[in-house]
Amino acid sequence: MLIVLTGIDGAGKSTAARALRESAEEEGTDVLVLSNHAGRRRMSLLSARFGVQLPPRLADTVETSIRVTNVLISHARARRFQGLVVMDRHLHCQLALREANGLPRGWLLPRLLEALPAPDVVAHFDVDPELAHQRIQARGTDEESLEDLSAFRAAYRSLPEYPGFAEIDAGAPPAEVLARVKRAAAVDQKAAA
């Protein structure tokens, strides 16, 4: 089974991926957690350090290259793995970033989404941007503005793929978030059977 986690920064995707791994391992299920980052955190730190902001199209080109490479590697690894595969982020994330930045979808990412194995569940972590902003500030490893987080949230909701996502209230306590993701995966398994 392949579960993909999407959502704005600070929604708790990585925390949930770790919790899913721990829960699956406790249940005796083999699990592989794969991260499909785009280098945004590192680029934002470098931008802040050197006071240089990349133009949106150049930043998107760098991020898309990194994200596509990571997604392709993750799918190659997932193909050889028997068990639960959890992908923290996917190409949907890059499409939402493009939308939030006023950039076109392009042709590459939608075609790759069609060509790659479809996830059994895309669990979208929906969270109030203010709560996400507080979480980002608390972890202190990167910076996102409240305005950017709000635009990113709206961009996810505007994706044509969004109606097929399992929306998870990521403002709930971590145990409840985990339970909701597991329920979404269980419902999908029943529907596939």
Can you describe what's shown?
With 193 residues, the chain is an alpha/beta fold. The chain contains 8 helices and 5 strands, in the order βαβααβααβααβα. It has helices at residues 13-26, 40-50, 56-79, 91-100, 108-115, 129-139, 146-158, 174-192; strands at residues 2-7, 31-35, 84-88, 121-126, 166-169. Strands 2-3-1-4-5 form a 5-stranded parallel beta sheet, sandwiched between helices. The radius of gyration is 16 Å and the shape is globular. 35% of the residues are buried.
Kindly list the characteristics that best describe this protein.
Rossmann fold; 8 helices; single chain; 5 strands; 193 residues; transferase; 5-stranded parallel beta sheet; Thymidylate kinase; globular; Thymidylate_kin-like_dom; nucleotide-binding; alpha/beta
Gross CATH architecture: 3-Layer(aba) Sandwich
Q: CATH homologous superfamily, by name? A: P-loop containing nucleotide triphosphate hydrolases
Major β-sheet profile = 5 strands, parallel
Structural domains: how many: 1
Poorly predicted runs: none
Number of helices: 8
The gross shape turns out to be globular
Structural class: alpha/beta
Give, in order, the helices and strands.
Answer: EHEHHEHHEHHEH
**Count of β-strands:** 5
Provide the residue-averaged pLDDT. Answer: 91
Provide the CATH topology: Rossmann fold
How much helix is in the residues?
Answer: 55-70%
Distance between the termini: 13 Å
Please report the first level of CATH classification, the CATH class.
Alpha Beta
